[in-house]
Amino acid sequence: MSDGHDPLRPEQESRKNRRPRDFMVLTLSGVVVLGLMTLSTSAGAVEWVLGAAVLISGALAYYVGSQTLTPPRETLNDLTGAQRPPTPLSDSGLTPLIQSLPFPALIINPDQRLSIANARAMDVFRLSRDTGLLITAAIRQPDLLTAFIRVAKTGAREQLEFSAYDEGQSWMAHMHAGPKAGSVLMILEDTTAVRRAEQARADFLANASHELRTPLTAIAGFIETMRGPAREDKDSWDGFLEIMFQQSERMKRLVADLLSLSRIEFSEHRSPSTQLDLTVLVSGTGLSLQPIAAETGIRILLNQTDTSHFVVADADEMQQVVQNLAGNAIKYSPSGGTVTLSMGQSRTMAEAPGDCGRQIEGASRATLLVPRASAEVPAVWIRVEDHGEGIPARHLPRLGERFYRVDESRGGSIEGTGLGLAIVKHIMARHRGGFMVESLEGTGTAFAVWMPRFQVPLTQ
Ligand code: ADP
Question: Which of 58, 139, 243, 381 has the smallest CB count inside 10 Å?
Fold first, then answer.
């Protein structure tokens, strides 16, 4: 504390000034006593010893006083509550510190060579050594290098976002003045997840507006035709109105799916709390879909739906899962085909995909959602199988992405929003369950979901 306020200082100064005076007083009084005794010829050996004792105690008082007046620096700081000045860490002290950091970190010396880089920083910059490398060899991102040199010169902290060699990985570099003048400490923060979430949001908005604009453009086009060139041609109006109706229905479906998706995403982090018998829900939903299936001559078969399976779930959401999967199976089946809804239980969550998702010989498979629930808990599964044309293997892993449609790339004409499977995936995520698909072209497709089950109802 060389420049701050020191509360002990005034007292220390005044006591210091008093010391020579105290010493003089004691010495003089000792000398006076001895002189008087000598003059009065009464000074004997005892008086001389007393006089000498007065002199010695004066010197002692001076010595002791000077000791208490200069306490050690730490004691002073402790007394005043002032902060101790930082003890600079040596390079050898910094190395284990940098290496133990759970994020990439490195220090560059004033000679612009690497002092120390931890293993994570070596990975990010693909360094061959953790020390001694020239900064220009270690950092290949020109913007980052320029910022780094500026910090070394000015000591002012800076931060800069960059992507390393691994495309798609982005980092925020925080640069500070290092332990020695001209050295720089850099720590890296992984911003990949944030950037990906931003990108996903932007893509979602772009896709949603594109999907909504298509039917809207069609409707607006027909309105213009009916008001202009076809104004008098009333016979053609029925055809136009039918297309406008279809397009408005498409918009309605899209808006409904978008709303469902955002509602489910909003509640995804709150676990469901209602206990229900999944068997009742699956067979009920299957039966309710029969009239729709019958319109295209498709039969819905319910398989193994006679045993109760208890789960903690949101009934509306689980109904939507069955509706979306069975609805797709109906939609993508040829007329006269069959769609089978089966259920079953597995000893553990880990065994469930083998039980419900490996039944078509020679099929390709993809896990669309890995369950969050423990692999050891008992499971229940639902499988929806059709005998449609199947899905080429390369598309399987991308099913469940919002707006991903296989038909679009096939140039097919089956109506859809590309959101149905994304909704299923989010619902199953909320229920800590799994989701997979198996498909063989020319044979058919099966989607399966599984989730934790209870042996008996929790409460009667
Ligand atoms: P959509 O509204 O387009 O059906 P989904 O998200 O439900 O959207 O499905 C995404 C895509 O997956 C569909 O466009 C379709 O190409 C494919 N798909 C889904 N289910 C089946 C199925 N049972 N058989 C064949 N293809 C399917």
Answer: 243
SS3 content of the chain, % helix, strand, coil (to 5): 50, 20, 30
> How many CA within 13 A on the CB side of residue 209?
5
Residue 169 structure tokens: 């990985």
Distance linking the first and last C-alpha atoms of the chain: 73
**Cβ distance 272 to 314 under 8 Å?**
yes
| Res 457: pLDDT | 62
- Residues contacting residue 11 through CB under 8 Å, at least 6 positions apart: none
Burial per residue of 145-175, b for 16 or more beta-carbon CB atoms within 10 angstroms, e otherwise: eebbbebbeeeeebebebebeeeeebbebbb
Give dist(CA 391, CA 388) in Å, integer: 9
Please give the DSSP secondary-structure letter assigned to residue 242: H
Rounded to two decimals, the pTM is: 0.66
CB neighbours of 403 closer than 8 A, spacing ≥ 6?
Answer: 204, 207, 208, 211, 417, 418, 419, 422
Q: Among the atoms of ligand 1, which is closest to the Cα of residue 419?
A: 6
Q: Helices marked H in 70-191 — which ranges?
A: 73-80, 91-100, 119-125, 135-138, 142-154
Residue of minimum CA distance from atom 7 in ligand 1:
420
Task: Extract the tokens encoding 368.
Answer: 């669309």
- Residue having the nearest C-alpha atom to atom 19 of ligand 1: 328
Query: What percentage of the chain reaches a pLDDT higher than 70?
Result: 77
Below-70 pLDDT ranges, the chain:
1-92, 166, 408-413, 455-460
Phi then psi for 210, rounded to 5 degrees? -65, -45
Residue 37 CA, distance from chain mean position: 92
- 144 CB-contact burial (10 Å; exposed 0-12 / middle 13-18 / buried 19+): buried
Nearest of 367, 336, 337 to residue 448 by alpha carbon: 367
Residue 287 structure tokens: 């039966």
- For the chain, give the mean pLDDT: 84
CA 384 to ligand 1: nearest atom: 23
The H-assigned helical ranges of 228-268 are: 237-267
Q: How many angstroms does the Cα of residue 228 sit away from the middle of ligand 1?
A: 38
Helix intervals (H) in 268-361 = 278-295, 315-331, 352-356
Give the tens place of pLDDT for each residue, 315-357.
Answer: 999 999 999 999 999 999 999 999 999 999 999 999 999 999 9
Q: 130 near 117, Cβ under 8 Å?
A: yes
Cα(328) to centroid(ligand 1), Å: 6
Token couple for 271: 């676990």
Q: Which atom of ligand 1 is nearest to the CA of 329?
A: 23
